[in-house]
Structures are given as structure tokens and as C-alpha cells.
# Entry
Amino acid sequence: MAHYNPIYANPPVIRTPSGVPGWRRMVFILASIALIVTLLISVKPDPAAGPATVAQAQTQQQVAGVEAGTAGDAAASQAEQHAPGGAGGAISPVFAAPVQYWATQIEAWSQAHGVDPNMAATIMQVESCGDPAAISSAGAQGLFQVMPFHFQPGEDTLDPDTNASRGLTYFKERLQQTNGDIGRAFAGYNGGQRAAASSWDHWPAETQRYYVWTTGIYNEIQQGLDESPTLQRWLQSGGASLCNQAASRLGLP
# Structure
């Protein structure tokens, strides 16, 4: 027969310095966490929304985190560390392995040029899939497929740092030209200043396709997806061969 310990008959009430019973404080904390999760779900960005709408929804999420109190702040901080381009600094997991190979450099290059790392990674994904020696039939070169006339005399066009600097400088100029219109900035990276200044109906088919691939991938990253359906379609449309070439060049499996 087990010996009965009377201490378990009426367990002592543990009180916090404020005088609130410990179990009630725990219930309050759990309720606060539930509240922040509910608020975050309710303001999830609409997949069909444009960049401005997505940014507004993200702002609402941050406000919800503040209003939820201390427990909500802890949950929001944890979520931020795992969010695309969040405090953790990592690029999204949607990108192919050869692009992930450059993740640390992408973050440094992006910070130096004031660009979202996931924008830079999206450009690299579609341009070269991380192949530092890629050269197109049009003469575009390197990780960001920069045309030779963007380089200074004597520069190594295939040097990753130099190539990234020239490519991201040009992209940042397109962002400024379009007042932050990410889609037209992507189009301008492919089609030049004229494309950035115009719209879909005036773009050549190549720029239209480029716009679809880049904005699709980037918007799905902004939605917090771990896999991009647009990127998968890009791979199936011929991008896989580019990524295989990049993986072979980098010695990846």
C-alpha cells in the first residue's frame, strides 16, 4: 500500500510579488499568447495583395503584438526571428540550394545597398540561380547577370562582390525611379529604365515573363511560404537546368 502524503491534499497557493496567485498569472499569460496568435491570423496578408497592401498588413501585425502585452511581445519576437527577412537576417528558404549557398553574402550586399535581401536573392534566383560564372547570349555576366557597360574599366565582371555591387546599384536606382514600386523595379532590372517607367502593355514578352517570375516569387515570400509555387513553375519551365549548372559549378550535390 502506498503511503499517502497529506501535502497533496491542499497544495499551497504560490503568490507573486503583486499578490496574484501563480496559477492565475499563468492563465493570464496563456490567454495573452492565444490573443496574439488570433490577431496575427486575422491580419495575415492577402496573397493577391500588392506590396503596399502587404506592408500595411505587416504593420497591423506589429501593432497587434504591442497591444497584446508582455506575453504577446515574446511571441511576436519569436515569430520575427523566423519571418522572411526578419531579425534573424536569413533569406527565405524558398530559394534553390545554389542561391542559399550565397545567403551570407546576399545579406551583406543587400545591407550595403539598402535593399531587402529577399529582393536581391529573387534577382539572383532568376538571373543565374547562383552561378558566379554564368554568361548569357546577350553578354550579361555573373551572379546578377550584369551587362559589361555597367562596370568600370579593369573590374573583374565575374567577381561576386563586384558583380553584386553593380547589379544591386542598378536595381536600387530602379526602385528610386519607380518610387518603391517593386514590380516595375524588377521589370526595369530586365528591360531598363524605359521598362521601369512604363507598364505591362509596353513591355516585351521577356520582360513580362521576368515580371511574373520575380514578383510571384517575392510576393509568396512576403506571405511567409516555405515553398514558392511560382519558383517551382520557373524550375519546370527551364530554370532547373540553370540551377543544375550552378550546383555543379559550386560543387553542390
